[in-house]
């Protein structure tokens, strides 16, 4: 079986939509070449968002490496299958989940903000959010 290793490099809030209380989260990762994917995040379950992001990255990488079968013997068939793994999967999940928790916390505070001063400072806080892996 072919193993495809993915390394998450960085996660960053790349856009904030105050009217929707929504952020665009960009995640940079590398397997055979560097890529970035984007997700829109609103107030919700941080674990569910983290699982969704990691699952979609795996699906993207798997589709990036088409599978081809040639021959009828077991080695040829197994060679055509690919296993997509994250380097340090547990650590990657924990770091992304922690970052997602910070985003969720700020989104909840933003939704409950009542003064324009607090509102404006929170907007600038979102623009500075990032995590390196």
Account of the 3D structure:
The protein is built from 4 helices and 5 strands, in the order E-E-E-H-H-E-H-H-E. The chain is α+β, with helices and mostly antiparallel strands. The chain has one domain. The two termini are 27 Å apart.
Structural class: alpha+beta
- Spatial gap, N to C terminus: 27 Å
The secondary-structure element order is: EEEHHEHHE
The tally of helices reads 4
Question: How many strands in all?
Answer: 5
The general outline is elongated
The largest sheet, given as strand count, sense and whether it forms a barrel, is: 5 strands, mixed
Short structural summary:
The chain has 133 residues and is an alpha+beta fold. It has helices at 46-64, 74-80, 89-112, 116-126, and strands spanning 2-17, 22-30, 34-41, 82-86, 130-132. 46% of the residues lie in helices and 31% in strands.
């Amino acid at each position: 079986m072919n193993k495809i290793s993915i390394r998450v490099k960085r996660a960053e809030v790349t856009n904030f939509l105050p009217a929707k209380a929504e952020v665009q989260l960009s995640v940079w990762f590398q397997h055979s070449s560097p890529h970035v994917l984007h997700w829109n995040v609103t107030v919700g379950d941080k674990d569910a968002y983290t699982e969704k992001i990691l699952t979609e990255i795996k699906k993207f990488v798997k589709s990036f490496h088409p599978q081809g079968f040639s021959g009828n013997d077991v080695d040829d068939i197994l060679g055509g299958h690919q296993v997509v793994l994250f380097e340090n999967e547990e650590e990657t999940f924990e770091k992304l989940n922690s970052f997602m928790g910070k985003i969720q916390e700020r989104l909840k505070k933003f939704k409950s903000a009542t003064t324009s001063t607090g509102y404006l400072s929170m907007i600038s806080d979102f623009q500075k959010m990032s995590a390196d892996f």
